[in-house]
Amino acid sequence: MSAPSLQVIAPMTAPEPAPTDCVIETENLTLCYGKRKALNGLNLRIPRGRIHAIVGANGAGKSSLFRILLGFQSATSGSARILGRDCNQLTQMDRGRIGFVNEEHSLPSWLRVDEVVAMQRRLYPRWDETRYQHIVGHFHVLPEQRVKELSRGERAGVNLAMALAQQPELLILDEPTLGLDVVAKRAFLEAVLYAVDQTDCTIIYCSHQMEEIERLADNLIILERGELKHMSPPDEFCERVSLWVAEFNFVAPENDKLPGVLQVQRIDGLFHYLVLDQDDSFGPQLEALGARRHYRGVVSLDRAVNAFLARHHAAPL
């Protein structure tokens, strides 16, 4: 009996990604877990270049979005593209164009640093050793150290250096400084700024730390309940939120009598109003409701974003 002949099947190749000025594009992107929608018809276009910060409360859909973009999970409906490629059709070459660092900073604990780097070097043909050495130098990590001997900040530095050494077009950083001490956090942020200044890499930076966003971000993206709620430079968002401080003779008016109220706090007998999309006419409205005096103050990005995200959660005065 003759041996069966072997049929050689050519590997399927994904079509070339469509040229685009956006690193990330989603259209009506929806992801459901049972009856809960982690992403709810998300329409998002992030242009190439600079640093784009994504912020949102827990459950806003940030992690779900990243899993879909990186091809780790399929959406329930809608579409998502990264660097012009359908996220369900990412090739190994596509993945080489994308760097990803999250808050876990996990590495094989039994290996030396130089052994981990050697494995990564073999995976990425565009590996830039000079760039790796420059970035990891911020963290004073020795190549002969075992991973289990590294601090969390040092592991973060090695991960960032390896991600940048592969010369990605897009680098996604998901809560990368979580749990880092002040020194390690400063080194990490300086390395990120170096990457932007010295490369053409676009960075997506996800963090709850507004001081990091203020220092790094050129573009602020706010997600809420799986939907896009705002996208602009950070200072433009701060211009949408204003602080008014007022003193009332008796009882302050109900919030629903004033437009755009995000948050009200009573501090030392004065009422602090954070309001959205209101101009100087808000002052006379306070007077009409009984304010003896009032003035307008400056709002930080941290306070503006937190008030915006917490606007559906009532707090006692």
From TrEMBL:
SMART domains noted in UniProt = AAA
**Pfam annotation, one family:** ABC_tran
Q: Give the source's domain of life in one word.
A: Bacteria
Q: What is the name of the protein in this document?
A: ABC-2 type transport system ATP-binding protein
What the entry lists under SUPFAM superfamilies is as follows: P-loop containing nucleoside triphosphate hydrolases
Organism of provenance: Permianibacter aggregans
Gene3D superfamilies (alphabetical): P-loop containing nucleotide triphosphate hydrolases (3.40.50.300)
Q: Which UniProt keywords apply?
A: ATP-binding, Nucleotide-binding
**Coiled-coil annotated residue ranges, if any:** none
According to the entry, every stretch annotated as the ABC transporter domain falls at: 24-250
GO: which molecular function terms?
A: ATP binding; ATP hydrolysis activity
